[in-house]
């Protein structure tokens, strides 16, 4: 049976989601609230992979300002966010509050080249009907008084915002569990295969069988063997994120984004600064180079951070793909296996739309046109080399998809 003619499964079908990050938890929540029987299998604790080192920025028009699949996915997901967060909080019945703000982003330029790029971006977004405002230096300082003297202009996008990634993932888990989903942690999947009864998942503690499996294991998705298929070309990309304490006084008004860093201000005075982009394999260490590079970058655009308190550094491995798009859709070889992986730096942003696409595909048999660009089938015959140590990507800490932004 091929993915194109596969009939949809029945609503009470058993589904195992492999991976307990923000994508896995969002998918589990959407499936269980649509009536499925859901279990999540996680090799660590829930939300302890790339999710815990995410700044949670919701900025599709910075990530991909030109038309294309990434912007289409991000725009649809952003439109879902208000209702999705409200539903998750309601279903979770209390617990830790979820920081969630839609007060915009201000992307700054520190030279004429950057300002020209922002002008072009502003025109392209305006032509697409997306609200934005180009600011000269005076207007930029008026919008964000903490900006430093290096800033020559900025682009304000009011619809953007952020969500607390760890709190959001914890709320997704609570909401899914409240509706009947179960979570099994510290159990790593090693192989997925088709069997007569459905889809088998092998682990060191033994096997399990479900009618449907959703592979949402982030950077580890390509490390899990799938019968009849080459591993997904997903590689880990290390990102380091700093947590600072704002030095007092008037806080930042919104997310600030420069060519070398981004800064997320929480209401409690916490400030997140990210994020490095490093091809170092499965190396999850924080490094002096990473920390000092981010501190230098944030001091350039926000001099007030020189007096900030240093609280923490977090490290996550983001699941990168060759085209920097996620992998969402049916497996070619294992009937009943679907992928929801490879979201790179956009997992938090794309969680609602990924959950919706998977639920529609698996439970209703509906294939959204958005899936065409992110199908796993596009990687047939493609492999990826994962560095084991030593090499750092030359995109130290800039625009999340710098190269893609300028070409997509």
UniProtKB/TrEMBL annotation:
An MF annotation (GO) of this entry: flavin adenine dinucleotide binding
Keywords recorded for this protein, A-Z: Oxidoreductase, Thiamine biosynthesis
GO biological process: thiamine biosynthetic process; thiamine diphosphate biosynthetic process
Keyword Calcium: no
Pfam families the UniProt entry points to: DAO
Coiled-coil residue windows: none
Pathway terms, separated by semicolons: Cofactor biosynthesis; thiamine diphosphate biosynthesis
Region (Disordered): 383-408
Alphabetized Gene3D superfamilies for the sequence: D-Amino Acid Oxidase, subunit A, domain 2 (3.30.9.10), FAD/NAD(P)-binding domain (3.50.50.60)
InterPro entries on file: FAD-dep_OxRdtase (IPR006076), FAD/NAD-bd_sf (IPR036188), Gly_oxidase_ThiO (IPR012727)
A GO-annotated cellular component: cytoplasm
Compositional bias ranges of the Basic and acidic residues kind: 390-408
SUPFAM superfamilies with a match to the protein in the record: FAD-linked reductases, C-terminal domain (SSF54373), FAD/NAD(P)-binding domain (SSF51905)
Domain FAD dependent oxidoreductase, first and last residues per copy: 15-361
NCBIfam families membership: thiamin_ThiO
Protein name: FAD dependent oxidoreductase domain-containing protein
Naturally occurring in which organism (per UniProt): marine metagenome
The organism's taxonomic lineage, starting at the top: unclassified sequences, metagenomes, ecological metagenomes
């Amino acid at each position: 049976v091929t993915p194109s003619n596969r009939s949809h499964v029945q609503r009470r079908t058993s589904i195992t989601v492999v991976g307990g990050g923000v994508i896995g938890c969002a998918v589990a929540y959407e499936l269980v609230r649509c009536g499925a029987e859901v279990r999540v299998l996680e090799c660590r604790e829930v939300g302890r992979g790339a999710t815990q080192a995410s700044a949670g920025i919701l900025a599709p028009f910075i990530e991909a300002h030109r038309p294309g699949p990434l912007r289409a996915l991000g725009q649809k997901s952003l439109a879902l966010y208000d209702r999705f967060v409200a539903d998750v909080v309601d279903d979770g019945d209390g617990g830790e509050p979820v920081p969630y703000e839609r007060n915009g982003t201000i992307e700054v330029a520190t030279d004429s080249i950057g300002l020209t790029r922002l002008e072009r971006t502003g025109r392209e977004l305006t032509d697409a009907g997306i609200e934005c405002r180009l600011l000269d230096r005076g207007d930029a300082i008026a919008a964000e008084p903490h900006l430093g003297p290096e800033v020559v202009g900025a682009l304000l996008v009011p619809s953007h915002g952020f969500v607390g990634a760890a709190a959001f993932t914890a709320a997704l888990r609570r909401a899914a569990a409240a509706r009947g989903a179960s979570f099994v942690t510290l159990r790593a999947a090693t192989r997925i295969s088709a069997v007569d009864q459905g889809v088998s998942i092998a682990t060191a503690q033994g096997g399990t069988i479900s009618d449907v499996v959703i592979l949402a294991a982030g950077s580890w998705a390509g490390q899990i063997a799938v019968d009849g298929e080459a591993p997904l070309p997903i590689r880990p990309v290390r990102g380091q994120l700093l947590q600072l304490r704002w030095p007092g006084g008037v806080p930042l008004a919104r997310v600030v984004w420069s060519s070398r860093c981004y800064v997320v201000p929480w209401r409690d005075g916490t400030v997140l600064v990210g994020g490095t982009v490093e091809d170092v394999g499965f190396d999850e260490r924080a490094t002096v180079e990473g920390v000092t590079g981010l501190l230098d970058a944030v001091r350039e655009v926000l001099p007030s951070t020189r007096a900030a308190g240093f609280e923490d550094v977090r490290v996550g491995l983001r699941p990168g793909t060759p085209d920097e798009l996620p992998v969402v859709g049916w497996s070619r070889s294992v009937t009943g296996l679907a992928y929801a992986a490879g979201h790179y730096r956009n997992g938090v942003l794309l969680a609602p739309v990924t959950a919706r696409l998977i639920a529609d595909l698996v439970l209703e048999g509906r294939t959204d046109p958005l899936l065409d660009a992110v199908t796993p089938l596009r990687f047939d015959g493609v492999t990826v080399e994962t560095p084991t140590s030593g090499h750092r990507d030359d995109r130290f800490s800039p625009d999340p998809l710098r190269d893609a932004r300028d070409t997509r």
